[in-house]
Structures are given as C-alpha cells and as structure tokens.
Amino acid sequence: MVDHARAANAHLALIPEMVIPLPAIPDLLARIESNPQPLVLIGGVEGISPTQYRALVVQHGGTPDIHDGAAGTYVNAVLVAVRTATQPQTRFSSR
After folding, report:
1. Strands 11-20 and 88-94, how do they pair?
2. Are 46 and 76 in contact (CB under 8 A)?
3. CA distances (Å), 38 to each of 13, 17, 21, 76, 92, in order?
4. Structure pTM?
C-alpha cells in the first residue's frame, strides 16, 4: 500500500489505534473527499460496540465483517480512507 501511495504521489497518514472518535468520522471523511490531493489514511477508531461498528460499515457502503452475535463489548476498528485522483474510497476492518 505504501508503494502504491508513493507511486500516486499521495500523502500517507497513519493514526494510532483507538484515537479517532466515532462522532469525528463523518467530518474526517468529508474533509478527505473535498481535498483534491491524493491521500491514504489508516487510522484506529475508538472502541465502539459491535452494533455501532456494523452500523458504521453499512452507512459507508460496506459489509460488516463481524456478525450480530459477536462476543465482546467493543470492536477495535481500523479506518482506511483512500482519496485518489478519481474518487474517494472508505473501508473499515475489525480486529
């Protein structure tokens, strides 16, 4: 991924685990989408419940990678946002 970002002259932003607050995600993604510069952002979302995680993934067009009956009280989620010259893409992954 780093090599692809360099080849596209994209900025690479790495945000540590569990730092991005859930309420900040819409504004963060809007800023990435509105910026014409290529960008790859990989960041840790604060601990959220499995229900919040599934809703977040679906809201951004994805398919949740944890099921309704998942054990645990929170999900350690990673946000991957890629802004290319043609369009922005957003992905989430749980651990």
Report:
1. unpaired
2. no
3. 11, 23, 23, 26, 19
4. 0.83
